[in-house]
Amino acid sequence: xxxxxxxxxxxxxxxxxxxxxxxxxxxxxxxxxxxxxxxxxxxxxxxxxxxxxxxxxxxxxxxxxxxxxxxxxxxxxxxxxxxxxxxxxxxxxxxxxxxxxxxxxxxxxxxxxxxxxxxxxxxxxxxxxxxxxxxxxxxxxxxxxxxxxxxxxxxxxxxxxxxxxxxxxxxxxxxxx
Amino acid sequence: xxxxxxxxxxxxxxxxxxxxxxxxxxxxxxxxxxxxxxxxxxxxxxxxxxxxxxxxxxxxxxxxxxxxxxxxxxxxxxxxxxxxxxxxxxxxxxxxxxxxxxxxxxxxxxxxxxxxxxxxxxxxxxxxxxxxxxxxxxxxxxxxxxxxxxxxxxxxxxxxxxxxxxxxxxxxx
Lengths: 177, 173
Hints:
The complex is a heterodimer of chains A (177) and B (173). By secondary structure, chain A is α+β, with helices and mostly antiparallel strands. Helix content of chain A is 34%, strand content 29%. Chain A contains six helices and seven strands. Chain A has a five-stranded mixed sheet with strand order 1-2-3-4-5, sandwiched between helices. In chain A, strand 4 (85-95), helix 3 (108-122) and strand 5 (127-133) form a beta-alpha-beta unit. The model of chain A has no long low-confidence stretch (mean pLDDT 93). By secondary structure, chain B is of the alpha+beta class. Helices cover 35% and strands 28% of the residues of chain B. Chain B is built from six helices and seven strands. In chain B, strands 1-2-3-4-5 form a five-stranded mixed sheet, with helices on both faces. In chain B, helix 1 crosses helix 2. Classes of the chains: A alpha+beta (177), B alpha+beta (173). The interface between A and B is large, with 80 and 79 residues.
């Protein structure tokens, strides 16, 4: 096999940060990335990490022109369903463009996602959830081929968010007892 | 009506489970609940919990006709945005029907926001069914925004045989 999937280390955070930005550019939202590789190091490698990460690394001879061998990642964390129990949420799945498709051996993206599913299974998780941009046809096709259901389309689920001032305002209303 | 919002303890799992079942029964989908009270206890109160919970409790004189003083709950966990950092996700928010309209739901949600900010989070996310107009209107009136409509993200899920196949790394997919 010409690539391997392994758990990320703090030293990988610079590469992960680089690829987070590449993914944001792909999603047409580069100005939305607010956290640095230092924040990733703190939040992913502390005593009670907020996330877990896997990276895909290629053998030396497949280095990119800039010299990168870490060419894909999956970032995930554990969640809970009060009906079904333990679940895993895959926040990011990304493979650099030149390593997609028919790269030697199994697909890198598939291998990363499988590993997330496997790690989740070891923790008795019964669901793997994630989000996809509705216009991202290659990704939607990739996921649907793996048996993923679109809950927004089939059941009408929408994600709502409090952030910025609205979140501060909401928190200020909390009872003081 | 007086009520207090506090962090749930192991002993509260009985009532949390009761309320989970109440909601499922009301929606006529009790058979969809696959976890037992024991799972809540293990998954929420062990060394590395999968969730956190807060309870709304009323004093003795306001107990329900069945004798319950724990009348609402919220269940949440910490999540992560690779763009923004730490976030909190509110999985469940429930108040028994006879105790609604008194601000308990809002108080539970505010408490999660407060706890989230204290933990360094800058987002509170949750999901609503888009045909549930009453809930949608309520939440949007509180200042949140619809990420699905606004950014065009769809929620996806793998479970059952599809998840098994993925974990096995079946060659065909």
